[in-house]
Amino acid sequence: xxxxxxxxxxxxxxxxxxxxxxxxxxxxxxxxxxxxxxxxxxxxxxxxxxxxxxxxxxxxxxxxxxxxxxxxxxxxxxxxxxxxxxxxxxxxxxxxxxxxxxxxxxxxxxxxxxxxxxxxxxxxxxxxxxxxxxxxxxxxxxxxxxxxxxxxxxxxxxxxxxxxxxxxxxxxxxxxxxxxxxxxxxxxxxxxxxxxxxxxxxxxxxxxxxxxxxxxxxxxxxxxxxxxxxxxxxxxxxxxxxxxxxxxxxxxxxxxxxxxxxxxxxxxxxxxxxxxxxxxxxxxxxxxxxxxxxxxxxxxxxxxxxxxxxxxxxxxxxxxxxxxxxxxxxxxxxxxxxxxxxxxxxxxxxxxxxxxxxxxxxxxxxxxxxxxxxxxxxxxxxxxxxxxxxxxxxxxxxxxxxxxxxxxxxxxxxxxxxxxxxxxxxxxxxxxxxxxxxxxxxxxxxxxxxxxxxxxxxxxxxxxxxxxxxxxxxxxxxxxxx
Amino acid sequence: xxxxxxxxxxxxxxxxxxxxxxxxxxxxxxxxxxxxxxxxxxxxxxxxxxxxxxxxxxxxxxxxxxxxxxxxxxxxxxxxxxxxxxxxxxxxxxxxxxxxxxxxxxxxxxxxxxxxxxxxxxxxxxxxxxxxxxxxxxxxxxxxxxxxxxxxxxxxxxxxxxxxxxxxxxxxxxxxxxxxxxxxxxxxxxxxxxxxxxxxxxxxxxxxxxxxxxxxxxxxxxxxxxxxxxxxxxxxxxxxxxxxxxxxxxxxxxxxxxxxxxxxxxxxxxxxxxxxxxxxxxxxxxxxxxxxxxxxxxxxxxxxxxxxxxxxxxxxxxxxxxxxxxxxxxxxxxxxxxxxxxxxxxxxxxxxxxxxxxxxxxxxxx
Lengths: 482, 366
Fold this sequence. Notes:
heterodimer, A: 482 residues, alpha+beta, 5-stranded antiparallel sheet, 18 strands, 37% helix, B: 366 residues, Uridine Diphospho-n-acetylenolpyruvylglucosamine Reductase, domain 3, Alpha-Beta Plaits, 3 domains, 8-stranded antiparallel sheet, 30% helix, 26% strand
């Protein structure tokens, strides 16, 4: 992936910039030593690395505002960073940028069970938001796989999803308000504990804007009471087509499970070897989870298994107790770890219409032969969000490039099938150059116009989301303003 | 009135316009501005409906009734329960799906299922220069680029004219049950509704009628499930007031959705969104003739004497929309809540980008 070459004029004023930042931040919040800035050289897309010019770790909205005002005056690009768990390179620095990390801003500011909200600083991790309300049996619904580590700031930037969004929605559906700092240091409040922020839906466009419109420092999030119980069922099929048809029939029957996870044979085999969850060896496996009281769970699982039986499953396993439920989830939850054991892998994130699932899986299988790299598929079947894992060997020259080319073909396939390039990971740098497959130049221009309004100098995370060629003239304006 | 029959024709008409345009779907929501009427009614029809994928793609001018009939045949529905404004405003005409989306119209189920904007997967629109733009798509999870889908929803046609929308639809519940609390005042009702909404019973409606002193709490799902949950709620809520279950309360909820209590009554109607517990503190300041509450108390419908400036009486965070009033009152007070300066600047900036000539519903949102 190409990144813009650093601006030598900015590199030359590193000392002055650090000095100015030290006037508004304590010494331990400005990281300028080259050995230490290296800690910020990449996120979870580790194939790409570049230490930033400086990193700053503010503790308050005011400090974030001061930092951005200074960077704005100095025309220095800023890359916001949550916990650095982006799989798309959303927090990848350039050599001439300041990394603004919100990790030290992790306080819970308010919990309000009567109004069912929590207000947090955005450096707080996703799981610890649920943790803060657990005692009252509440939870925060979006549950990305990285929830132990990922920060709310990054969740908002990428509009993160998770396994349970079929029922509960993604971040944007659970975000009620933000405190956001604009690139020029202006602090804005949007929304709050009331519903529908009023005026244009600025909150809606900020969520998922990959840190390009502002730095969100505080968030008001919707919290929900936990259901009385939840239980999964595991169903094995001898073809992807039949598994896909089963998912469609369940949804058509009016059952809305909280999660429908799909694994194909390569994935089942890898998980089984790694986690020994006792999965049946078959072509496709569904894990379907429902929620409610004991009787409600029984009723829904009854409907689901009846539909599944009409599709001649090779295996149908209901969890009798919590242990069995955990075993059913065990393999799925260790899927990524299992793949990591075998090989290096690249995790894709395209979404397709559920109806085109069999076709897309068949084409991925064919392409796997063409590119000579294995693929395992695990995905959220209820909403069509696929996670093909392409296996490669990072030590083998050319393998990463082949893998990336293969990945790009899969994502194009998702778009051709009526879907999109990314369902929950974000574009970052990873899918930046594919944007013109999904959108026309006019479609992208409409998006760029939004950034023009929020960040006229194009300083916030400027090399992400859009093909560099498309944003070149705008980024040049920032340079010319030097 | 201009009634283009295709997206291309609509785009051409916008590009060729040389004055303000009043963008209309069915014209039932009382939001008309001065200008030549441009209607989307000619853009009608279902483009794609996949019940097994819970997705619907439909042209913007399609009547809501047609969409609802289509979905009902597959036991599905628009879960955000869009309000019909005709009874409240005394308008006639056929509400369109594009109007629902442009105004982000949601009903009682908004507290559980989300607003219209939460069910909108993709849009096609023509901006103020006549440029056709698409954003989002037809799949439920999509974070590819900026979410202009949300931005268009609730923009009331000021950023572009919708030509096609993709929606997430949901199964229609097999049954519903409503727990009604009788003889409860507002503070008690808000506490009871908070308790219900904070319970594990997945409440899909929580409304309070300040004129009958009744709170209504709805659950939906499979028949046995609705029965079980309503019985549990009766037990949970009995300490607040006398609680009884009503089996079939479809008309009741349609009335709550459409604010039937204020139909054909004199006065202006305001719609105020606040944090539910703030409603208790706010209400005495409103000096309203009559009040109805939805969303657990967070949505307040206030009937006030014509010409009342209500916004200055609001002493808690939130926003107020003037839904029904004479044209001159609306012009004087503004339909929508003015935004704080930095947000107003952003909104104005966006309008200028998407509608540089300022011809799309000018002045409606600021």
